[in-house]
Amino acid sequence: MKTVAVIFILLIFISLDSVVKCNGDDDGMVGDDDANISNIKCLVCKATILKMEEEIKKVDPRKTVEVSGFRLDPNGKPKSKSIQYSKSETFLTELMESICEPDNFSAVSQSIIQKIVVNQMLNNNGELDFTPDSTLVQSLNHFCLEVLDENEDEILKNFMRETTADHIEEIICTKLAKYCVEDGKTRRNEL
């Protein structure tokens, strides 16, 4: 039975094209709770942003919505413009409210758990000391909500732009929210 588990883990390792490097520490994941939480928050942030991007791509680009602001034209009427529905604050807010729900987040959490296992195996010379349980899935869901709540304005601003940047998950999770570290840099300790 152990060999089947090892083969399964190795198949997961082989099937992943790339491993997200979110933790600047070389110690691995065992025994370092701060590194574990930082690494998991990074993975959750990136997975959540990628899931949002995936859901946005499902919306018909021809679907538009009229938005108006507080500015008036020379005739005293409010100025309005038509934007893609997928770029509207209404759609994005609804998406952010539903993305962490268990039905929507289960595939994302499975992906995160696979990356945790692979990262741990890479950092511990192939040894694995990891047992996912129900509290981990609940923690991932909590981190998803936390990421969206703490960074709502930045996430909305980046997704509402006319053109969404490539690798938006890197921009939001590394540069803006600072859950992840850039390659070659170490995580700064916060007081």
Describe how the helices and strands are arranged.
Blueprint: H1 2-15, H2 33-57, E1 64-72, E2 78-84, H3 89-98, H4 102-123, H5 134-150, H6 152-160, H7 168-176
Antiparallel strand pairs: 1-2
Signal peptide: 1-24
Protein name: Protein seele
Organism: Pseudolycoriella hygida
Fold and architecture overview:
- This protein is mainly α and about 190 residues long.
- The chain has one domain (about 20-175).
- Helix content is about 55%, strand content about 10%.
- It is built from seven helices and two strands; from the N terminus they run ααββααααα.
- A hairpin with a 5-residue loop joins strand 1 (about 65-70) and strand 2.
- Residues about 1-30 have low confidence and may be disordered.
Number of strands: 2
Q: How many domains make up the coordinates?
A: 1
Distance between termini? 46 Å
Percent helix, as a range, is: 55-70%
Task: Compute the CA-based radius of gyration.
Answer: 20 Å
SS field, number of helical segments: 7
InterPro entries: CNPY (IPR042415), DUF3456 (IPR021852)
Signal peptide: 1-24
Organism: Pseudolycoriella hygida
Domain DUF3456: 41-180
